[in-house]
């Protein structure tokens, strides 16, 4: 099954002083480069949801802007990505990953695909009792049908509510990984914590 990777990078980084998370550096490499490299072996194509401004965040990746006048927030990026997949890679699944998830697990797509059966249209990442809604494997058509039926509003909808409507299943990595592979960056303390997880095998 073909998979398109969608890096969700449209946030304004308000808690980081307005710096886009995509351009924050971890061990001298931008977060968007960490995530795109992690997805290379799981996805045939990778695109970036760049928010309402549609600015190109990585020269080697296609940027997909939110549609005007529709839903807002991460769900708008999700819809834009699903529409791109429908047009450019019909029949493919979509793997959405937040741009601040540098330690994305190499086997997520394989494990999640095995769970995407029957009426399950989404598999969401989890670690213990915490879900990470923006990090998930989706069937694009049900995503489009659900989100296009929602009237425009100043905020939302929440991605976790979309997943509930689509019959999402959890893929919990707590029994698989000693450290949380979905840990992200909301502030500088998070970035410092992730920097301590970087290893240099040749050092």
Query: Helicity level, as a percent range?
Result: 25-40%
Number of helices: 6
Task: Give me the side-by-side strand order of the main sheet.
Answer: 5-4-1-6-8-7-9
Sum up the overall morphology in one term: globular
Describe this structure in words.
The chain has helices spanning 31-39, 74-88, 108-115, 140-148, 159-165, 188-195, and strands spanning 3-8, 25-26, 29-30, 45-51, 62-65, 93-98, 122-127, 130-138, 169-172. By secondary structure, the protein is α/β, with parallel strands linked by helices. The strands form two sheets. It has a seven-stranded mixed β-sheet with strand order 5-4-1-6-8-7-9, sandwiched between helices. Strands 2-3 form a two-stranded antiparallel ribbon. A hairpin with a 2-residue loop joins strand 2 and strand 3 (29-30). Helix 2 (74-88) crosses helix 4 (140-148). The chain is globular and about 45 Å long. It starts with a strand and ends in an 8-residue tail after the last helix.
Entry keywords:
globular; 23% strand; single chain; alpha/beta; 203 residues; 7-stranded mixed sheet; two-stranded antiparallel ribbon; 6 helices
Brief synopsis:
The chain has 203 residues and is of the alpha/beta class. The protein has six helices and nine strands.
Q: How are the SSEs placed, and which strands pair?
A:
Elements: E1 3-8, E2 25-26, E3 29-30, H1 31-39, E4 45-51, E5 62-65, H2 74-88, E6 93-98, H3 108-115, E7 122-127, E8 130-138, H4 140-148, H5 159-165, E9 169-172, H6 188-195
Parallel strand pairs: 1-4, 1-6, 4-5, 7-9
Antiparallel strand pairs: 2-3, 6-8, 7-8
Helix pairs in contact: 2-4
